[in-house]
Amino acid sequence: MRIDIVSLFPEFVAACAGFGVVGRAQERGLLSLHGWNPRDYAEGNYRRVDDRPFGGGPGMVMLIDPLRAAIAAARAADPAPARVVYLSPQGRRLNQARVRELAGRERMLLLCGRYEGVDERLVRAEVDEELSIGDYVLSGGELAAAVVVDAVARLQAGALNDAESAAQDSFEDDGLLDCPHYTRPVSHPLGDVPEVLLSGNHAEISRWRRQQALGRTWERRPDLLDEQNLSPADRALLAD
Ligand code: ADE
């Protein structure tokens, strides 16, 4: 997958993506990141990329033309069509289903705004979808872009090692939170590993994990349970 990042700080997003699974996905050729800085496409001695908002108010608004030129340069760099995803708190909220959908694309372009935002005419003309990573405001879209890059990178086929992909993640498959995990030592001053995990009885272990996942979801995120139809077996586990 190819991801183009239009940002005043493209190196920042790339630096966030240089480690662990995402770094490895790049090394394995499963993911390539390409930064495009609108300042490189701005004109005049000062290479202005923003200006004061019409109507007054605090902050600055990013200019249309440098952003548009950066997007055009990114598009021209590769023949594959790229949908433009604008990271903003006004966007649709990201979830794992959406991540899966994005991860299946051959290419996408992430547009990061700074300051108070981006001229609305640019958004209307160039943006295919607006995406928020949560109901809070960041000082720019770069961290949000890094979140998207990380989440889609780990879903590229071959990005995770076997052990990692075998692990049941929160939200994967069933939309539940993850069960708790334990490793050595079995006994520790902070507590013992639940016995069922040492039993070797895989059916019992699966049942326990499912029950833990259901219980945690019920306690912490009941909204997720409302959204899914629990099987009679799950209801019994929850009641247990
Ligand atoms: N830019 C600023 N805040 C953001 C958020 N919550 N999600 C995505 N992009 C943003």
TrEMBL record:
Which residue positions does the secretion signal occupy?
Answer: none
EC number from the UniProt entry: 2.1.1.228
Which biological processes are named by the entry's GO terms? Answer: methylation
Where is this protein chiefly located? cytoplasm
Q: Under the GO molecular function aspect, what terms does this record hold?
A: tRNA (guanine(37)-N1)-methyltransferase activity
Domain named tRNA methyltransferase TRMD/TRM10-type: which ranges? 1-226
Q: How does it assemble?
A: Homodimer.
Q: Which family does it belong to?
A: Belongs to the RNA methyltransferase TrmD family.
Q: What is this protein called?
A: tRNA (guanine-N(1)-)-methyltransferase
